[in-house]
Amino acid sequence: MLKIAYHPIFSHPLPEGHRFPMVKYELIPEQLLHEGMIADANLFAPEILTEENILTTHAADYWIDLKNLTLGAREQRRIGFPLTSLLVERELRIAKGTIDGALFAMKYGVAFNVAGGTHHAGRHWGEGFCLLNDQAIAANYLLNNNLAKRILIIDLDVHQGNGTAQIFEGESRVFTFSMHGADNFPFRKEQSDLDIALPNGSGDEVFLNKLTDALASVFDKHRPDFVFYLSGVDVLDTDKLGKLALTKKGCKKRDQLVFEVCINHQVPVQVSMGGGYSANINTIVDAHCNTFRTAVDLYF
User: What are the Histone deacetylase domain coordinates in residue numbering (predicted)?
Assistant: First the structure.
């Protein structure tokens, strides 16, 4: 059974003057329900993440400043918007949804979070609209509860997963793989276990060929027993911020490659949606829905 984390707060708008397309988090499940791809039973609303789980991944002083809304002005500018209690709650529910999704993936092979992919949040900082790193928190949850021994994080958002790389630097049980635009945010990159930085204008052929080779190499080298996949659609040629040139068909093929290698190695995968900033919201939603459609075709 396909399980998808969704809560109305995922679509909560940012303060005036700091908005970005959060509406997609509401439209994605609506579209999948409309198509009959999923039913209400496929959706689950995550609870609030516990402080204990936060502190496995993020520094205590950073979390205290988030919780008490006392993060400094400079740190808030790095995040990209003013801090509010609703935004903190949103991140707590997103991260709990990714933990729950990981547990569902162990049962069903794959599970989704409509939101998530907050990969710019490092151990002691937030950045790029990311306060808490949902997949890093979930990875530590699996490790600390002896539910996984070797984890692979596949980050195919157009932006490098710098926070994820920093959190797991020196952690041999977690292999971080980021394929992203070289000339894009964050401009100060961290070092993943494998970084593939693509030049501006890279399209389907370049992207898919490099991904195919990288997946084969990483699975052979690291032999993961669990995968987290960040499936941002800001790699599209229509994206306002991405600078790459994948077609929607190429983006869907990307998802297929990831799912197929997980299936072939019998490794469960949790998927968080990541970024997408095309001018037309329908393009964003359809590209994200393709990730769900591909998973349904392959797993169910």
Answer: 18-289
Would you call 119 a catalytic residue per the annotation? Answer: no
Give 216-237 as a DSSP string.
HHHHHHH--SEEEEE--STTBT
Distance (Å, whole) CA 95 – CA 5: 10
Question: Among the options 7, 119, 120, 180, which is catalytic?
Answer: 120
Residue-wise pLDDT tens digits, 221-256: 999 999 999 999 999 999 988 899 999 999 999 999
**Which domains are delineated in the chain?**
4-299 (3.40.800.20)
- The answer to whether the CB of 100 falls within 8 A of the CB of 46 is yes
- Cβ count near 248 (within 10 Å): 16
The answer to whether residues 106 and 58 touch, using CB atoms and an 8 Å cutoff, is no
pLDDT tens-digit series, residues 137-150: 999 999 999 999 99
Q: Work out the average pLDDT over 268-297.
A: 96
Cβ contacts of residue 2 below 8 Å, gap of 6+?
38, 42, 108, 110, 111, 112, 292, 295, 296, 299, 300
Q: Where are the alpha helices (DSSP H) in the chain?
A: 24-35, 51-54, 60-67, 73-79, 85-108, 134-144, 162-167, 204-222, 248-264, 281-299
